[in-house]
Amino acid sequence: IKDLEGLEKAKEELRDRYGLYPQEVRNLLEIIYLKTFLKSLGIISLIVKGEVVVLRYPPDVNIKAKLDRLPLLYQRRLIKEGKKLVGISKIDLSGVNSPEILKFLKEFIIDLSK
């Protein structure tokens, strides 16, 4: 799956072959969606380590301006190391329930794309 269109085709094929799929498959499809969408924003990877999400991106991707425009809800969760956010950004997920992490990340990424 290389783009969002490919993801939609894969979802359609899964539904055609297997009908409704379990929550675990839906979660996997959400993760694929998030990673594909992030790639379109220039973000190389999203990794969840415990209660922290780590976003990695090339230094030439100007993500700081986008992070500054995020709603306060997300800005409070940014972990700032030093004065610059170059190459890596970390988001604190403490207090976000496990079932809600995917929803939180999806909303965060959609807001980041604006």
Automatic annotation (TrEMBL):
InterPro entries: TRCF-like_C_D7, TRCF_C
GO term, biological process aspect, one: DNA repair
Gene3D superfamilies xref list: Transcription-repair-coupling factor, D7 domain
UniProt xrefs under SUPFAM superfamilies: TRCF domain-like
Pfam families found in the cross-reference section: TRCF
Coiled coil region boundaries: none
Domain Transcription-repair-coupling factor C-terminal: 1-72
Name of the protein: Transcription-repair-coupling factor C-terminal domain-containing protein
Source organism: marine sediment metagenome
